[in-house]
Amino acid sequence: MSAPAYRPDIDGLRALAVLSVLVYHANPQLLSGGFLGVDIFFVISGYLISLIVFRELARGEFSFAYFYARRIRRLFPALIAVFLACLVFGGYALFAEEYQRLGRHALAAISFLLNFLLMREAGYFDVVSDAKPLLHLWSLSVEEQFYLVWPVLLVLAARVRLQVGLLLGVAVVGSFLFALHLGEIRLDALYFHPLARFWELLFGAGLAYAHHRFGADVLPARMDRVWVRHLLSLAGLIAVCAAMLTFDGKTQHPGLPALLPLLGAVALIASGPVAMGNRLLAFKPMVWVGLISYPLYLWHWPVLSYLRIMESGAPSLLMLWSGAGAVVLLAWATYRFIERPIRHAPKGRAAVTALASGMALLLVVAGVVWQTGGLPGRDSVRHAADTSALMKREPATDEPCRRGFAQNAAPVYCRVNASQDRIVAVLGDSHAHALYPGIAEQATAWGYGAMLLANSGCPPLSGTTWGRNEAEKKACAAGIEKILKAVEEDSRIVAVVLATRGPQYIDGTGFGPVEAHYNYPPLAAWGAGAAGGDSDDPAEVFARGLGNTVQRLARRKVPLVYLLQVPELGVPAHNCIDRPLTVTGRHPGCVVARSVYEDRMRVYRQRVARVAARMPALGVVDPLPVFCDAAQCTGMREGRLLYADDNHVSLVGAGKLAPLVFEKLRGLGLTQNPRTL
Known about the structure:
Helix content: 55-70%
Oligomer: single chain
């Protein structure tokens, strides 16, 4: 009896939201802001659920047990079907490490904690989102976290006679300001953080409170005119559609720009079902899509994700749109044969208990998949076991290295193998981390220890920095100084190897399908070390930064070499191996035309060559002999995988590069330690 009167226009708004998400995930170029459909869902959910809670609290009928039982009956039936399908299908379509990740994500999603896991994974090294079939369930996790907190706050407010309007105002402002603050200090966490999203649900809750107090669809007295409703409705629809057409992946979100579509959604709901824009939303096909919007949202991403995975990241548009059509059929079948029968079944504990038991069983299955490493003994992936092992990344830090820095002040990558009193230092970014195992092994053979000092996405180029906001830029600049000072002060270091990525820092673009949504700016000048040139061109900034670093380290009078960036594959390293399951049966391979590599690297290599010509203390190592012939560069040599992902070398790749590095060091004066001869 507490449910709001049915409004077909709200189902139409649901349809607009889910279709925008579907189009965006099938082809982002068609609707660059289609991801805003999730935000519209938050407003709708906050409105409808909060209106029910307000009414039940007012009548003294609210029950936490009944509230959460109702949530279980609403959410779990379709969720169980999707989880089961994803886990079963993944057993045939995914490599072991991919299946292990799916199991881990399923555990978090079933527990409604997936957004927290994705926050920890987010960053430069995160795998492409297309490779995460359950990624979209972060939004459901945020929503359920909200409904664990919001009803409790409303009950407490009623008991202490706190005005709900005041509670709403404080909560909205607090959550919104937190989102703005988080965008300044930790951008990777912004999208998934619940406190940065609660204000969107609270927008709907605020409108629900107004309708609860003053009547459904009521506007302030001076605004309650038919023409005002039409104007408000059309303005809301235009705001939502305009945002979907103009926002893109570079829009900081959620943040100030999100006010446009969210206020548009509030305006649409507030204007009432008879307003002009809402009548458009109440068009019967839209209402039908709205009715199946929940299972449609649940199914759309796994289907599109698996298509991209099976086709190694490059399915045809026809295949993706065919998948989108299949999603609609799956959603209708789920609604017709799973959701509706359970929703209309006699109320009681039996259905809730069965649904909760089903989710608990899936939790166990997901845990087994995760803990066993993705069931590597499956027949479909045995052929890839040895090769897949080469993709595992080495540890980022170790205790002996961390002890050389103040607490929590060590670089992101900090390792040392100092069994000898003389060591070779490897400096750089994540590419230095990938190279380090090969250097450490070769150093041991030469009678030296080895040290790794590097930061992810932050090359040790003095007077430069890299980041998407001031906080990231300050952290990178401080990290560069920390590394260079550590090398300057460590008398054990007898040689230095620099290894960084290149074009990415110069033109701010990624490479290939894997980095299609790459969202980092180019390198920038920073601080006093930026002096020495007037140009802010990133290529010049890179060259000046490299020159500054060489000049500082040359004072140590030790051999110094720079390893040019290895060719980028632009596709996952898994593309070098036959996938367990494909749609077309094609194997795209993992080769890049040498001409493409040379075009991509031209400006970068020219700048490095210019610095080396001006500073004889710097030796340059070219990786081309390891990876390329006259026609192409490849990720496999003699049946062995040279890459751990789309651009970082594997242990085999690092092992093949290390001898080139040490031969260059020999030419600069490094000799084998006599004690090893």
